[in-house]
Specification:
The chain has 331 residues and is an alpha/beta fold. The protein has helices at 2-29, 34-62, 95-107, 125-137, 153-159, 185-190, 215-240, 244-249, 257-262, 272-283, 298-314, and strands at 68-74, 77-78, 93-94, 113-120, 142-151, 163-166, 171-173, 178-180, 254-256, 268-269, 289-291, 328-330. Helix 5 (153-159) links the parallel strand 5 and strand 6.
């Protein structure tokens, strides 16, 4: 397929290049007076690079030089990176952007397979599920490749793929849910602050940091965590054809690649080259990989970079509280 595409692309490029040069020659050299001719040659020389660029772009769209799309899930998983660095925690893997990349790959008739590169500790629950659902809708084989870490929400994303590959040293698993809250009641007492909030609904302010949790509130919040965990276990068990009890027995541990493979959490161990060789055998043709990247304006890229720098200095791997949320829940 690549040979045909290459020939088609080269033919289109040469045809457009010849047509463009001929058009330029006609436009600039049709009146051969000496001064005009000199100016025409200069203009033609300036015009040729534009012809080459446009011809190459059109030829690439006519016969794309790739048949595998690669999408990366790198860093903490969250909803979006389009926000002010001052308004919320910095982002690593934006679910909105990644879903858009997968959908774009699915709509591209040249893409026959999807390679999902994972290096993530997990993150927000629903955004992780959104990425997994987009992968499940992809029309073609989808292969997950874990590099350093494929944990928690990252593993749920991987479970949406047809196969999961990892390195021997990859950290895989952490099939669990964590909820966290900041308790500042003692500090408020020392500062002479009193908490008073008017609410409608008994559990509306359950977990607010300025007062201690009551036991029934703790049970209520733990129930939410347990429900998320049940969903996580069932989803992974169904996709990986494992027993839910076996997944629960992992107790949200992480495993090195070889042990993860023994437990059925990983299908194969190997390098990126091994994954590409496997895809080539599956597709029955030579493959070429194109990395699909999010379409971000310069302002958004700068904002995302600023957020990552701030996160590296200030937040580490801790969960974050945003807006009026009093409980941070993530995979």
């Amino acid at each position: 397929m690549n040979v045909v595409n290459t020939a088609k692309r080269a033919g289109t490029f040469l045809l457009l290049l010849v047509a463009g040069v001929a058009a330029g020659w006609y436009l600039f050299l049709s009146y051969p007076t000496s001064t005009r001719e000199l100016l025409a040659i200069v203009l033609l020389l300036l015009f040729v690079p534009l012809i080459v660029r446009v011809s190459g772009s059109i030829a690439r769209s006519v016969a794309p030089p790739y048949n595998v799309a690669e999408v990366g899930v790198v860093g903490p998983i969250t909803r979006d990176i389009d926000s002010s660095p001052l308004s919320r925690a910095p982002m690593g893997a934006s679910a909105n952007a990644i879903v858009e990349q997968i959908e774009r790959a699915d709509a591209d008739s040249s893409v026959e397979a999807l390679l999902v590169r994972l290096n993530t500790p997990g993150g927000e629950i629903v955004p992780s599920e959104d990425i997994k659902l987009a992968i499940e809708k992809f029309d073609g084989p989808a292969i997950a490749y874990a590099t350093d870490t494929c944990a928690s929400g990252g593993y749920e994303i991987a479970s949406g793929c047809d196969e999961i590959w990892a390195r021997n040293g990859s950290l895989v698993g952490s099939i669990g849910v964590i909820g966290s809250r900041v308790t500042a009641a003692e500090l408020a007492d020392k500062l002479g602050l009193e908490y008073e909030q008017l609410t409608a609904g008994e559990y509306k302010d359950a977990g607010v940091p300025l007062r201690d949790l009551e036991e029934h509130e703790r049970d209520y919040l733990q129930g939410i965590i347990d429900d998320y965990y049940d969903q996580f276990v069932e989803n992974v068990a169904e996709r990986r054809e494992l027993e839910p009890a076996d997944i629960r027995d992992t107790e949200a541990r992480i495993y090195l690649g070889e042990e993860a493979a023994e437990l059925g959490l990983v299908d194969e161990l190997g390098t990126r080259e091994d994954v590409l060789d496997y895809l080539e055998s599956e597709l029955g043709t030579e493959i070429s990989v194109e990395r699909f990247e999010p379409h971000l304006a310069l302002r958004k890229r700068i904002g995302a970079g600023t957020q990552r720098v701030a996160y590296a200095f200030g937040a580490g791997v801790a969960g974050t509280l945003r807006g009026d949320e009093s409980l941070s829940i993530r995979k």
